[in-house]
Specification:
- It is built from three helices and six strands, in the order αβαββαβββ.
- It has about 230 residues and is α+β, with helices and mostly antiparallel strands.
- Among the domains are: about 30 residues; about 90 residues, TonB (TolA/TonB C-terminal domain), CATH 3.30.2420.
- The chain has a three-stranded antiparallel β-sheet, with no helix packed on it. Strands 3-2-6 form a three-stranded antiparallel β-sheet, covered by helices on one side.
- A hairpin with a 2-residue loop joins strand 4 and strand 5.
- The longest helix is centred in the N-terminal third of the chain and has 38 residues.
- The protein is flat and about 200 Å long.
- The termini are far apart.
């Protein structure tokens, strides 16, 4: 019975020895790790701090060179004026006394007798101007004139256009038409044109002042009427 107990004891002692060795190794590793953690230096990153650097002052400009004074002008020689010769006084001739002249007395003029002015003749009144001679207007109804009547436009007949045209006619002393223009329209250009074309070829008995023919503006009516 003693042999098995000794074997167990030896086995247990070997186990304890092995366990102790393992513990020592573990403790050694822990202690080495602590030493390594303690011995490592703590590295702090450097801080960058900006510093304002004042610019270097510019060098002062060199002082200006002194300007040399202008040269003094040389004094001009003073020329003394020569004395002018004093003219000698010319002796004045002694005036001779003028001979005494006798003045003849002026004749005394007598006043002319006053002649009375005759009275002015009475002013006669100017004769009153004669009254102007009456003006006789021109005529177109004389039988010997033979003035053609205006032609009625065919289109105006079909359209039923009718009206009265007033013309300003300047009649010369020989009875011919010198100028013609429209005074008032009939409302239809075709009728107005027909009246102008006809009247400008007419002849008139001219206007007269007394027995003398004169030029005259005359208003000539022309009527266009459709007979049913």
């Amino acid at each position: 019975m003693s042999a098995p107990l000794s074997n167990n004891t030896q086995t247990m002692s070997n186990a304890l020895t092995f366990t102790g060795v393992v513990l020592l190794h573990v403790l050694g590793l822990v202690w080495a790790a602590q030493q390594l953690s303690v011995s490592d230096p703590v590295i702090t990153p450097p801080s960058v701090v900006g510093v304002l650097v004042a610019p270097e002052p510019e060098p002062a400009p060199p002082p200006p060179k002194p300007v040399p004074p202008p040269p003094k002008p040389e004094p001009k020689p003073v020329v003394k004026p020569e004395p002018k010769p004093v003219p000698k006084p010319t002796p004045k001739p002694t005036p001779r006394p003028e001979p005494v002249r006798e003045v003849a007395p002026e004749p005394v003029q007598q006043a002319a007798p006053v002649v009375p002015t005759p009275p002015a003749p009475p002013v006669q009144a100017a004769p009153a101007p004669e009254a102007p001679a009456p003006v006789t207007p021109p005529r177109t109804d004389a039988a010997h004139l033979n003035n053609p009547a205006p032609q009625y436009p065919a289109l105006s007949r079909r359209l039923g256009e009718q009206g009265r045209v007033m013309l300003d006619v300047y009649i010369l002393p020989d009875g011919s038409v010198g100028e013609i223009k429209l005074n008032r329209s009939s409302g239809f250009p075709r009728l107005d044109n027909a009246a102008l074309q006809a009247v400008k070829t007419w002849k008139y008995v001219p206007a007269k002042r007394g027995d003398k023919p004169i030029p005259f503006w005359y208003v000539q009516p022309v009527s266009f009427v459709l007979n049913n």
